[in-house]
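#struct-help
A.M.: can someone run this one for me? Single chain, 142 residues.
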Amino acid sequence: VLKLLALGVQDIECFDFVESPPLEAIALAVKNLRQLGALKGEKGEWQLTPLGWQLVKLGVDPRLGRIVLEGLARGLGREGLTIAGLLSCSGSIFFRAGTDEEKARSDCLKIRFCHMYGDLFTLLSVYQDDRIGDLKTNCSEG
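D.P.: on it. Structure tokens below:
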């Protein structure tokens, strides 16, 4: 949706897609872009904000791009890139395997990575610890 708007397509719902997404999906995409601050205006008269144009240039998922740009703006570019990279991976970075006892132990060890400011900072904590030592060893040996 962001790229279509950048190309000047205003009536996204009527755009001739090869495989048209459901109208609800388009509406949700527009809502998300407005919440991110990438889009302003009303249906048929959408305008990309300066942030929206920056997101178009990045060419990544707008939510991830917003994390990167916000990190750069706050002098935390490396951290923003790291968090966006971790979020772009499918699945969880915490893998639970083994017996019930091993899973419970793994859950207890995972707690040390939890950050009081939430999941994004928890991901960053895991990444930063992994750069210092082998995460697999850290999680299985404590």
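A.M.: thanks! The chain has eight helices and two strands.
D.P.: also worth noting: Residues 3 and 56 are 6 Å apart (CA to CA).
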